[in-house]
Design brief:
The complex is a heterodimer of chains A (112) and B (113). With 112 residues, chain A is mostly beta strands. Chain A has strands spanning 3-6, 11-14, 19-21, 23-26, 31-38, 44-50, 56-59, 62-65, 75-77, 86-94, 100-102, 106-111. In chain A, the strands form 3 sheets. In chain A, strands 2, 5, 6, 10, 11 and 12 form a 6-stranded mixed β-sheet that branches. By secondary structure, chain B is mostly beta strands. Helix content of chain B is 0%, strand content 56%. Chain B has no helices and 11 strands. Chain B has strands at residues 4-7, 10-13, 19-25, 31-37, 43-50, 53-57, 64-70, 73-78, 87-94, 103-104, 108-112. In chain B, strands 2, 4, 5, 6, 9, 10 and 11 form a 7-stranded mixed β-sheet that branches. Chain B has a 4-stranded antiparallel β-sheet with strand order 1-3-8-7, with no helix packed on it. The termini of chain B are far apart. The chains are: A mainly beta (112), B mainly beta (113). The A-B interface holds A 32, 34, 36, 38, 42-46, 49, 51, 87, 89, 93, 95-102, 104-105, 107 and B 4, 31, 33, 35, 40-45, 48, 50, 55-56, 90, 92, 94, 96-107.
Chain lengths: 112, 113
């Protein structure tokens, strides 16, 4: 079945540091890949997505590239801000299948 | 004009009680979901409905019963609540069973005492 493994947190960084959160997936068919973000006390929001190999999703300074050869979709940001503090979830969904699987979530704390 | 709304936001109840969580989406989507998020933030799918038809039913105790009166609503009823049911429950929707993106509600924090 489909599954996602993402790096365990928590991750603590200083403001303006570089962020990488690793995500690898297992899926049959042609999966779409996502990063969702959950700010404190809120629901999940879509951060970015990529629907085919070599696509790069980007939003709010965050980027992730769909790497089929390594089955990865690592999240990166060049300079994090305090407001980026949240839990980040990697997710996979296979076309023609309405089952979206999430990773365990990685808590990011950015200190001033 | 919230896209996916859940009620209540917080629910505290005693063991053995029966409770319901309601979810409504005004996006015109065909597919709706219930997810459970445990204390470690792990998010696990429970149910998925497409046009009021049950599509996914993960290994969830029979005490949990989803009900979809129409495709804009997917309610979750829980019988004989147990301490281990304490979690945050998220409702979500997507345009259809093939749609890539899901839209989430703000969650219902259920605490069983």
């Amino acid at each position: 079945g489909n599954s996602v493994t993402q790096m365990e947190g928590p991750v603590t960084l200083s403001e303006e540091a570089f962020l990488t959160i690793n995500c690898t997936y297992t899926a049959t068919g042609y999966p779409s890949l996502f990063w969702y973000v959950q700010y404190p006390g809120e629901g999940l929001q879509l951060l970015l997505k990529a629907t085919k190999a070599d696509d790069k999703g980007s939003n709010k300074g965050f980027e992730a590239t769909y790497r089929k050869e390594t089955t990865s979709f690592h999240l990166e940001k060049g300079s994090v801000q305090v407001s980026d503090s949240a839990v980040y979830f990697c997710a996979v969904r296979v076309n023609n299948n309405n089952d979206m699987r999430f990773g365990a979530g990685t808590r990011l704390t950015v200190k001033p | 004009d919230t896209a996916v709304s859940q009620t209540p936001k917080y629910l505290v109840t005693q063991m053995g009680n029966d409770k319901s969580i309601k979810c409504e989406q005004n996006l015109g989507h065909d597919t709706m979901y219930w997810y459970k998020q445990d204390s470690k933030k792990f998010l696990k799918i429970m149910f998925s409905y497409n046009n009021k038809e049950l599509i996914i039913n993960e290994t969830v105790p029979n005490r949990f019963s989803p009900k979809s009166p129409d495709k804009a609503h997917l309610n979750l009823h829980i019988n004989s609540l147990e301490l281990g049911d304490s979690a945050v429950y998220f409702c979500a929707s997507s345009q259809d069973a093939r749609a890539a993106e899901a839209f989430f509600g703000q969650g219902t924090r259920l605490t069983v005492v």
